[in-house]
Amino acid sequence: MASNPVMELEIWKGEWGLPSVDVHCLEVMTYAKFSGTPLKTKITNNPFKTPHGSLPVFQHENECLTKFGEISAYLRKNNHTADFELSPKQCAEAFAYSHLIYEKLVPALQFIWWIDSKNFIEFTRPLYAKLLPFPLNFYYPGQYEKHAKQLAMSLYPEEDDLSVIETAVYRQADECLCLLATKLGEKEFFFGQSPSSLDAVVFAHLAPLLKAPLPSAALQNHLKACTNLTRFVGRVLQRYFPKEIKDHEQAERKITKQESEYSDSEFPNKLRNISIAALISLVAMTAYAMSTGIIQVVPADEGEEED
Amino acid sequence: MPSVLLTDSISFELGALEPWPSDVKLYQPYEVEHILLQDQANSLAVQVFLRMCGLEFQVEMRSNAEHMSPSGKLPFIKCGAFVVADLDPIVSFIANKGINLTDHLDAAQKADMRAYMSLANNILGNAELYISWCDENVLNEVTCPRYGSVYSWPLNTLLTWRKQKQVTKKLTALGWITKTLDEVYEDVDHCCNALSERLGNHLYFFNDRCTELDAVVFGHVFTLLTTPLPDNRLASIVRSYPNLVEACQFLEKAFFQKPTANTTDGDSDNFN
């Protein structure tokens, strides 16, 4: 592998004002922003050539890493850390809370994204079909769905009914969101005024849940009810990803403008089209009437008599 | 048949009306020749939690405890008409009877406690599973003989193979299967470091009073220190955090004073 002097990260594309739709990509990107790492992101939407079949992939010099833990440890070794202001006890708390999220929230996110049938059919599969190139869009969504189901089954081995697992998983996720809201309180970030690795992890897991237009949105509504967490996500987006918000707003404005233009453009032509249609129908009806003899044009001299 | 997870909530409401019976039994696999790392850690955690709450119970050892458990998790307690498995449901069940150890904690401390419990269960619990079932040495020398010891041939081979498949599937889903043994040891070290930082030079994690977190950490630390494995790296990692060892010894003296055959391995001074 060629040595790459610049830190590069291959990611999934972003939607809904987020820099990426994928939790793991968001973790790395947010941590890089918090720690001031000069990270170059490359939107590939293609997990085919990656070491483990998933994104993100971090490359620097001869290193090729895929997990957030490995990448943050590597960045820390290269003097890029977001936790320099934390005491050892706070570092321990950050580590513990990250694992709280991995244990209680991640199964629910997997469920919402891949197992809930309404969300999968109306939201997730079309999203990944749009992002992935042909023919990978037939393979990867099925694979991710299979992994999610395996996670749910292995956590609850004695349960066969997915709806029961769903209840248990959502209950744990609700509890986790309440604990995070309690921990954050009214502070700007979890450990004071400046963000840490825990803020990166929390943001990465909450932002897609908050911003995605999910058809089946029970957990999303619970998150929206935790107003301090919602404000936290908005704050991180505004301060560290302002470009993505601006791009998203511009794109939304363009779409609404196009829709209204399309409906406006009919109006000048509408009248013209109606009058032309009326004229044509009048001419056609007159010609028919004359041809069948309903209307007779009697010339000055005697014309033919009709039967 | 109603599911275990849903009937938990119903049973807790019904169970709240009854006082703690005198004939509560805790079921686990055989201590000396059958039980494995993670089950022992969980069982000790539940036992010390019940003792912390001052609740009486008896330990019953069964070869098929795992299959008797309603959710497949060990240990489980039989309390009157209710059967509750795993520490978290047991804690909720007992809390519904008005007994809990976290009254002295404020909301932020409760959140911290739950986070550290997740940490301990996630890392130490999964590390114990990994080492028992994915490390060839330990699998062949310790796990297979122990797990199959209560069955005759060929059942012992088949059931051990089936359990290994199940555990491997779980670790794959959680992303642990791709880790090397060194990475697992590193994670255990990191986890013990975090717990040690939180504990500081106290004997309990919060306000000098015992909580579920103390029970969970005791279960894992005691198991890792006293279980002989082919490679003793786990024990030496834990031993390098003297405050965790001291807290564990303190809890053992406080709650397991009478060395009976039923509770610990009887090796109360086996912290060498």
Describe the overall structure.
The complex is a heterodimer of chains A (307) and B (272). A 4-stranded mixed β-sheet of chain A has the order 2-1-3-4, covered by helices on one side. Chain A is of the alpha+beta class and 307 residues long. In chain A, helix 3 runs antiparallel to helix 7 (162-184) and helix 4 (106-115) crosses helix 6 (140-155). Chain A starts with a strand and ends in a 15-residue tail after the last helix. The radius of gyration of chain A is 30 Å and the shape is elongated. Chain A has helices spanning 23-35, 68-77, 88-104, 106-115, 117-131, 140-155, 162-184, 197-211, 218-225, 227-240, 242-292, and strands spanning 4-11, 39-43, 57-61, 63-65. By secondary structure, chain B is mainly alpha-helical. Chain B folds into 2 domains: 2-97, Glutaredoxin, CATH 3.40.30; 107-256, Glutathione S-transferase Yfyf (Class Pi), Chain A, domain 2, CATH 1.20.1050.10. Chain B is 58% helix and 6% strand. Chain B contains 11 helices and 4 strands. Chain B has a 4-stranded mixed β-sheet with strand order 2-1-3-4. In chain B, helix 2 packs across helix 9, helix 8 runs parallel beside helix 10 and helix 9 packs across helix 11 (242-255). Chain B is globular and about 45 Å long. Mean pLDDT of chain B is 86; it is low at 261-272. Classes of the chains: A alpha+beta (307), B mainly alpha (272). Chain A binds chain B through residues 52, 67, 88-89, 91-93, 95-97, 99-100, 102-104, 147, 150-151, 153-159, 161, 164-165, 167-168, 175, 179-180, 182-183, 185, and chain B through 3-6, 70-72, 107-108, 110-112, 114-116, 118-119, 121-123, 166, 169-170, 172-175, 178, 190-191, 193-195, 197-198, 200.
Topology, please?
The complex is a heterodimer of chains A (about 300) and B (about 270).
Chain A: E1 4-11, H1 23-35, E2 39-43, E3 57-61, E4 63-65, H2 68-77, H3 88-104, H4 106-115, H5 117-131, H6 140-155, H7 162-184, H8 197-211, H9 218-225, H10 227-240, H11 242-292
Helix pairs in contact in A: 1-2, 1-8, 3-7, 3-8, 4-5, 4-6, 4-7, 8-10
Chain B: H1 4-15, E1 25-28, H2 37-52, E2 58-61, H3 65-68, E3 76-79, E4 82-85, H4 87-96, H5 107-133, H6 136-148, H7 155-174, H8 181-199, H9 212-226, H10 233-239, H11 242-255
Parallel strand pairs in B: 1-2
Antiparallel strand pairs in B: 1-3, 3-4
